[in-house]
Structure formats: C-alpha cells, structure tokens
Amino acid sequence: MRAQGTVPVVLRLIAVLIAVAAVIDPVMTVTRPVVRPIVVAQLTSSDTSAVDATIRNAVAGAELIYRKAVDGRLPCGPGEPCLVVADGSVDVNIPGDLDAPIAVVNAATMGTPNVAIRSVLASPSHHAAGSGTVRVVLSGAGMQGRRTEVRVIDAGATIGSVDHAWTADGEVPLDISWWPIGDGARTLRVSAVPTEDEATATDNTVDVGVHVAAARIPVLVFDARPSWASTFVRRALEDDARFLVEHRVGLGPSLAAGTPAGRLDSRSLDAAAVVIAGAPESLAAADVAWLERFVRTRGGALVLLPDRAPGGAAARLFPGRWTEHLEAVVSPAGPLRVSESLRMPAPSPFDQVLASVKGSATIVASPSGNGRVVVSGALDAWRYRADDGGAFDRFWRTLVIESAATSATVGIEFARGVAHAAAEVPMVVRHRRMDPGEPAGVSATSTCGDQPAAMIRLWPAGPAGVFTGTVDVSGEGPCEVMVAIENGPVAMAGIAVTNGATRTVSEVLAKLARAATASGGMAVSANQAAAAAASLAPSPREDSQPIRPMQSPWWMFPFVTCLSAEWWLRRRNGLR
Description:
Blueprint: H1 2-24, E1 28-34, E2 38-43, H2 49-58, E3 64-68, E4 82-86, E5 102-106, E6 114-122, E7 125-127, E8 132-141, E9 147-154, E10 157-165, E11 170-178, E12 184-192, E13 205-213, E14 217-223, H3 228-238, E15 243-252, E16 255-258, H4 266-271, E17 274-278, H5 285-296, E18 301-305, E19 323-333, E20 336-343, E21 352-357, E22 360-368, E23 371-376, H6 391-404, E24 410-414, E25 418-419, E26 424-431, E27 442-448, E28 454-456, E29 459-460, E30 466-472, E31 479-485, E32 490-497, H7 505-519, E33 523-525, H8 529-536, E34 541-547, H9 556-572
Helix pairs in contact: 1-9, 2-8
C-alpha cells in the first residue's frame, strides 16, 4: 500500500518540476558544426552547363544555391561564399556590404570567327542641328577577308553606319558619324552585325546614352579692333544654327559696332559659354581683367585669335612662351593650313596640343583657374579657308562646341548617361558665374518616362556653385532633369534608360575581376572553374547557439501524462 501511495506523489512532483522549469525558462548554449552553402551567381545569357557541372563535381556534397541578378545587384549577401559565373553579358553593381571572398569564372565564349566591341566613346551632349561622332574600337579574330558592318541605331532606326573590311586580326578604331532624329535623352545602340558562323553575338552590342539639346550655344566674339581671323571664325559660327553669337568690334577710341549683348560685363559674361577674343594684343587693361575673371573665377572658355606675337596687357592671358614664324610655303596645322604662325616650343604636361606645325604646337588649350584658354597660333589660316573643303569652318565649330561643354552657365553631369530601370544615378550641378560668392537658389526636378515629376535633393559639394544629388530612375522611357537657378537660367539634361548592355563584355568582366581581387578571391577562366569553386568550399566551423529547451511543445506530453496518471491512481485507491 505504501508503494501505491508513493507513485502518485512522484508523478505529482515530476509535473510540478516541469511547470516550475517552464516558468523559469532556462537558457542553454549548444555548440554545433555549421556549414554555409555556396551561392552561385549566374550572370550569363549563354549556355554554361559545362561550367556548372565542373563546379558541382569540385564541391561534391556542398550545398549550392543558384541565383540570378535582381535589380542590377550582385545576388550575394554579407558572409556568403559567392561564386560568380559570368560571360560579360549581364552587368551588375557590386554591393559594398560583402565581407566574404568572391570568385569569378569567366565563361565567355572564345571561339572564332568572332567580332567584339571593345569600347564605345560618345560625347554625352549633342545638338539637334548637327551630326555627332561615335568612336568604336572593334576587335576581330579569324575575320581575315571578311567584312563587318557597325551600325548606330536610335529607336530602331539606323542613324549611322560604317563598313570595315578585315585584313588582319586585332583591334581597329572606327569613327561613325550619326545624325539625331530627336532631342532629349537618347539611347544609341552600337551594333556590330554578326556573321552567320560567328562564335558568339553577346559581345556585339553596347548601348550608350547621349543628350540631344535644342538650345543654342551662347558665344561672345569681342574684337578690340577689326581682325580677319576673328571675322571669319565668327561667320563660321553665325552660319550654324547651333550657335547664338553676340559680337562687338572696336572701330575707334570711342566707336564700336555689334550686338547689344556684345559687351565685356558681368551680365554678358555670365551668359556666354565661350568668349572669342580677336586681336588680343590690342585689348585694354580693363578688358583683360574682365577676361581673366571670366576664365579663372567663372570657369569659362576663352579662345584667343592673335594677329601677332603676344604683347600689351593681354600678354598675361597667354600660357607659356610663343614665337612668331613667317614662311614662304604653306604648311598644314592640323586640319588648317598656314604660312604665318605662332608656336609654343615647349608645352607643359597640362597643355593640350590641338594642332602643330612642323612638330611645334600652334593651337594649344591650357587650364587656367576654373576654366581654360585656347590660343590659336594659326595666324593666317583664314586665307586658305576656301582650299580645304570646309575644314576651317568644321574645326572652329567643333572646338567651340567642345569648349562650351565644360563652361556653360549651368552644367549638369551624370555619373553615366545610360542606366537600367530602378537604378540610382549620381549627378553634379555646376552654376558658373562671375560672382560666385553671391548666393543663388538652385532647384532640380526629374521626369522619368510617364511618371510624375519628382524633386531632386541637392547638397552643396564644397566649391561655391557646385551641388550633388541622385536621380532615381523609374518607369519606362528616359529621365529628363531640369535645373533652375533662382531669377536665372534653366538647364536641361537627360539619362537614357535601356534594358540592354551598357558596358562592353570586356569592361564587365574586368570590373568583376577587380571586385574579386579586392575581396581576396580569384578571377579565373572557365577551365579553372574547379579551382575557383574549391577555394570557396566551406569547412565546418563551430557555432555557439543559445537554446531554450523548456519552450518545446513536447514538454506538454510528460506534464499531462504525469497529472493524468496521478489522478487515475488516486481514484483507483478511492482517494479524491
């Protein structure tokens, strides 16, 4: 009987202990071996089944997680071993939170014959009234005796093309002229038409973004006295719809002719992107001071067209030392022709030589303060303007356009001119003015595709008049950005939006290789995929984890069992 009375007590005690332990909820630490899986990021558009099989064999038994790129981001998280299989057709952003090594396997097809676009260079801005040029570097393997057509396509229409005949393998630069079919942000697709038996076409197409402007470029031509060189340069610009030319020429001590805005004052110089000074050796000291301020403080572009060696107050505008040369024969000076010239014997490393005569620099662009000064030593090139098929006019128009690109009153610069949807593109706004210390309100808005306009928050970037911001690309279609200066000018620029490749295959693979090296990983070819996978093969490591054993629902079973058995035994013995 005593045994029959002891059992219920024991059962009741066990149930009470379970209940008390559940209320206390003790925490225990358990050490377990943990093996993290390998993430395989598939950045390819071609068949890589052979590479995948090699990877699986190299890390047999390890867990592999295959992922595709999402929103243009490398699909690997912090702490995850990441093996990237790429053929260069998928471009991604490398996140900054990765703290584990990355291994990259180059799965690009290397067969022949093959044509690949190595690089594409296009000026980010063009004018709707003029043609543009795209510089394409093309490489060929096994293409001897064949031809390749390279096209520039906008909205499905071919707007420029060139046909190249291959005489040897290697790289060739090609300049392709194109004509805009619309203004605003445009996506230009550069495509090398593949042959029927080409090894791969993934490296034949690249998209670039350009902004086609409709606004005219403001140019101020100021002549201290009549100058033939300045006159014919001004006529070349006035005959082109891309330029808005204001001018003034001094005819005497108190007599001048020109347009109302053709003056050297703050208002005219704030508005002008480029100033052309004819006969600078005759400039007054006050005029030279205005031009110095325009270049060094405002950041404008000044073009000097001297008639003789530097002298007078304007001598300090000329960078370096110049010597005058007169010859009986006509010599080429880049695309121009001259018999009288100024030459710079020893340009500095900072000078850009635009044209030379007999090996000596004669047209030179030099940085000065925030801007730059271009000196044309081609003194009598205007005499031979009719002998070169229009090269004189083309040279000066191109020079002014290139100079204006970095000296406009309001400049908008994007980190890249073409982006994928949902990308964030950094931008820089520069407000150039004669008095940078005077505060001015700057606002910016973006309109992407059919989305409503969105404000862009701008932050001061240090120098006066420089602001930074970020454009959130959204919707379908290009993003147009408008920057407005309080009580001042308004500027427009755009970002083209595409679903295609925005970098060449070689550029994408090079970026991934740099990221792998920086992370402590490796970048290898497809035949070394096994070594890359093995380098990431995870080894078990001890991982301490806290557990709360009393939170398990299975404790209800012994708790209920003990109470039920105790109750049954008490009833059996006639107890309540």
